[in-house]
């Protein structure tokens, strides 16, 4: 008889459950430790047999199972602010996982509160970002919550140093083990993106194997004709997509996003292979597919540049850089991130209009744009019409701007021994 | 008899001459105004019949003609620092024209000093950025120089309100007029890029016509097989390109850049259509092709992320944003831009290594990277090996990071009426 | 007979009139040029005989005179946002003049619109910041307005190269000339501050003469006992001042500010002598007195640090730096400055509480603070009580933070030839 | 017989020893745990009986005692870069303690390496910044070192929950206990500053008691005549101080700094009372005296503004903000802080010249400045001389700057329902 069955009850824990081997073992292990386990599986757009997962969790002894469809709030409350921000971590990563975590964890805390559970648990590793994103959300929304992170508990990670030990444990406890061979990398999917990392990808020189990608087609075999779309924005958020080719339209946030995923995926848009800096201080290599997110990044950048004042844009760009870093690091639910979202949202009031673009062979090409609120003034900028502009003014403008440079030159000339630049 | 022939000599002017209609008319007009004109034509990689231009200038009365090949210094002294910076104006524009201007104007000032000319002249318009970039360079390097900018002089621009008047003037003064019909947009080319703007492109909704592009092939008809390249960097600058397919290599800066232009152009890489904010305060629409620059942007971003410390990168990113803005606005030769170049160059010391990438159908795909100086630690990041890492430390890390968030929650709870975010 | 009397009417101009020699001469000169002149004198807290000025303007031929008390809106709409921002230009200047200009010019544009005047005029010099601040406000609020700036018109400034020519002109046109000898520097005063510059102060080495200061007493002769004040803030704005010594209180914005000016002036608080960088590109030397502004700067800094989250503060500090620069340069009425004011105002919602301070011998000493919304947690920070804090967590926090530094050290060790730092 | 003598040897530890009760108890406790203890006492300018401390440490069983005078390197290698940066944490704190920690810890690591010790130990608390500053330095310079931080070890801090238990332990182990009653706050002193915190100061409303200050005289009783000093800078660092009153001069870094401490202390300069944000996420209240540092902050700010280009200054200001935060948080020895020091040092090349200032009643007043490398141009800025400046240019400058504002106004007018700002 297992020692664990003797353990006194430690109360209820809400476990973020995926249905996979790791969290199935964790579920059983938590019970062993004396917890009542409520399994929580967020439907955030990943491909998954949710009913099978529910049955599995119950079979493994979950007291209760929550399967929550949070796709819509993921799009409207997490992805949209990121689109408004043109959020990009380290110039490349569209933050697909980082945006999903606070959305998933927020619901988990809500369930814990509803169920009177004192604990939440997750299966994130001890080296990654997700543990941080997960737990900072929990602590920010419910400071009294206790987090159980087995992969950081010596009694857990020393017992399961590798996959083999997990498999043994699973077999011993009647946990179904995967029948298909494991991919030599790990994946994490949601509506916005899928990530591939670890395993053979840990060597940053290794090229991604051909069959790895699942959300986008290979540009080499993608259609030979583009899809041309018009995306309409209001307050910096897409409100309508029209496919110029077949006239298809989508207007609700979730449907629109799913549609863009389809189109972008079909044309192989949104693949990147990067090395990034984790919050815990190490560099890691990740391969990501973000189909709809990539289209929206380009489209929003364009309509924003078209409608926003130059100097407001510059300030907003600085705020968005900070925002992206905070989201990556797990601080979505923090005073500073709230503050930034408020400021960025404010900046989006004039970001209204329609962008036309072509999706083709892995690329998004902007074709044109129009807006009822643009600051673009065709007459003013025209090479052929003078408009309300006095060319002679530019002389004064340049002369005054050169004043400082001339003074600097004067000083430099005085300094006989010039430093090597 | 023209009044101008009576004008007393105003001294010598060095005119930035392109061989086209505008600067040919300006050349003659400057002579009319009483200047001795030295024509200066910079070979900065554009496609041009330089000898024909020389003859034309002499025929129009230029006292002397300088045709200067500054391609190499353009690459080494201007493009390379931009590559190190990942320089991008408003998140999209790789600064092809902005980088060329200070290079062209610097040589022009040198010629003026060598020739004892008190004046320099150019044919840039009064609404654009180029006048600023041109003149700030001149004033910074030679504060006493006088600039003649005919397109800002009422006596000039009122005399030539449109192309027709220029044509009339040209015919009257024996200036050869173009035989091919003018494109309904204007172009500016150098080794790094070509820009298309004005004319029918002034309507930001108008799609670029199919035949517009000249430096890149249409991705729709580009090769069905990628070129795979390895680009080796030292101190953030490419020092060798190897084509994995055919083993071709290039090592000298200029040849390497030309080669990348060929490969990228062949695969349709580097096209953008944007609305940007000019320094003089108006929005303008431009279409650009930057083939080699686009490859290098992606490759450098990758090797930099691989080798540079996270926090150094963040600081450097801020400096590069400022650098890009300064370059766009014409402040290459300014104390602040010198300072930034110094700092950015310093940051590039560890940026050493090789990036492997694929060029295909308008896209650049990073495939892998390696470096003798990377901060990437495969063992540390491994999911399967613990390495020199204690998972339990992450618990303390997260707890301390959550402290501030918990305190904020405590405060928020005290505030009974919560503000709408 | 003057040629000017023949000039056809150029319409109406609203002149920012000070009552002094310069703007009196400008008033007459504008009439000479054919303008109908409306004199506008803003009461923004300076010491002035407004009625005498009104009579003088009418006597000189002003069609109408507006004397407008805008002190209250100056405090509430301009100084308060600066207090919220801790606005400081180049780390030292509290922006006393820069804040007043847009307030003055805004009213002037309103008068022009009410009177149907097409022009506004001012007596600011062509080298300074005030011309810019003045005119950017006018153009931003009324793009069609025409500005007449005599000190930038060659026909004016060449006619009046020095004070002597102005005096001659005044005598000739019956303009009263000052009877007291001119100070060998120029002054500009408003409710917030007084500036001294030009004349003997142009040599940056020259010490300010003893009798120069007018708004503050010499700390050497100021009282030997401090005044102790409590300043209460709401949303980052002072709402009540209490003098602990005599129990005096002030609550309305204007009265509170005037009272702080009195107290601070009595104790010699707020004097600085600086060299600053003007927007037009030159360095200038200014001596300023900002009594109440200096107290409020220190008090607000303290209550803000006490109540605002650390990371919000950091972001807000960056925004305020930009805000200060914009205000200095004259961009108060710009989209970016509006945006910043909105964001900064948002950040001030929790800035509530009371600061106690002592004003003595030129200094402001913070003595203590309290707030119903502070994030300060006495138990948490206590050295003697553990509170809700686990010291062991700090170990993990430090270890994870050191990870990146150790990796860097590892890399540095690999690089055999270390660069000189 | 003590249990500790039975413990097997854990190797050698270098303890940062202060001679006080805490670290004396720690010394004995470490021996109990089985360590060989080397006591290290840094002379960094604090008032201390170093020989008494040496004897005490030996008496308590230290294997060896190092008393290291690191004052000179503290000034030259740590304070000088901070002066160049105008380093200020959260707008107020001159970083006196934060600068000392990496200097102290660096020597400690050197001693550990020399002695072959695997461990270092310190007596910093688990809630503060010093533990972080200390340990990050150790790990950055010697990644393999082990840190023993008793105040974060449950077996230690649970054994000594309060001062009483420490006293008991001391008495039991023959550790001399302080004969003077403890101040109801804690202090930390070095050459640059002294801090007071904890105890009765933990209530942020409590005013500092009159007798608290030790490094500066009360301004109320300080001399009634100022000291006037001239401070000469080279590359942003003070190289000579001259007292205009008595002609005294100091030139070497350490002597100069000590002299400024004397003068500033005599006049009550450098006291602040603040609430600051610790790196671990809590707010704390501290009272600081930084006499010489305060004078140098003002003097350097002045000479820098006088000699540095406006735009370089702005960039450098941003870097210095980041630098200050890093220093506060303990990242002196990090790649990013190294990078920033390099950039800031570069910016200081033109910062050469002499500042004259007056020190009086708690204040530093700048009186004037001169420099062989100033960008100040007296003729250019003169109100009476036109110099090499064309006032008409300012018209064009303003007009072009207003273009964007006019366009924005045009847009706003189109938007019928204006948003409340």
UniProtKB/TrEMBL annotation, chains A, B, C, D:
CDD domains registered for this protein in UniProt: ASS
Record carries keyword Ligase: yes
Protein name in the entry: Argininosuccinate synthase
Compartmental location: Cytoplasm, Cytosol
Organism field: Pipra filicauda
Pfam families linked: Arginosuc_syn_C (PF20979), Arginosuc_synth (PF00764)
Stored InterPro entries: Arginosuc_syn_C, Arginosuc_syn_N, Arginosuc_synth, Arginosuc_synth_CS, Arginosuc_synth_type_1_subfam, AS_cat/multimer_dom_body, Rossmann-like_a/b/a_fold
Record flagged with keyword Plastid: no
Catalysis performed (reactions): L-citrulline + L-aspartate + ATP = 2-(N(omega)-L-arginino)succinate + AMP + diphosphate + H(+)
GO terms for MF: argininosuccinate synthase activity; ATP binding
Biochemical pathway: Nitrogen metabolism; urea cycle; (N(omega)-L-arginino)succinate from L-aspartate and L-citrulline: step 1/1; Amino-acid biosynthesis; L-arginine biosynthesis; L-arginine from L-ornithine and carbamoyl phosphate: step 2/3
SUPFAM superfamilies named among the record's database cross-references: Adenine nucleotide alpha hydrolases-like (SSF52402), Argininosuccinate synthetase, C-terminal domain (SSF69864)
